[in-house]
Amino acid sequence: MKTFTNFFAILVVVSCLALACKKSSTTPTDNVINTTVTDNGKTIAVASGQTVAVTLNNPIDGGYEFNTPIYDAGVLNLSSHTHTPGDINRTGDGGTDTFNFTSLKSGTTNLSITASRGKTDTISMFTAKVVVQ
Q1: Tally of domains within the chain
Q2: Which residues of the chain have a pLDDT value below 50?
């Protein structure tokens, strides 16, 4: 009986150690690649399912409004576009806009975000090559 008790105790200890050493199967909580204007013109490599967040200063102080981003919809999906207001006490602070793109499948796309003032004045705000692996 004592041998059975010792065997059971060893089995419990080994089981606890095995569970403690087991790698986590959960997805990392930081599944977002954050980019800004400093990443303009760069190549951004992401895994399928990751989000690319592009945060840019809002150009409203010059009378510009963001246009619809241009990208391959088979590779990326614009999952959200949010505006964070600027400081009302700072002249010209239009805040920031964040564009969240979810990568859908392997492939490459050029991502372009522009802003326009009127019908003829368009400026480039952000361009990047996004490679989904």
Answers
A1: 1
A2: 4-29
Q: Is residue 83 part of a domain?
A: yes
Q: How does strand 32-35 pair with strand 51-57?
A: parallel
d(CA 36, CA 57): 9
Distance CA 35, CA 98 (A): 9
In-domain check, residue 15? no
Alpha-carbon gap, residue 44 to 55, rounded angstroms:
14
For 8-35, what is each residue's pLDDT tens digit?
Answer: 444 334 343 343 443 333 333 469 999 9
Identify the residue whose tokens are 């409004």.
65
Structure tokens at 21: 């050493």
CATH number where 47 lies: 2.60.40.2020
pTM over 0.85: no
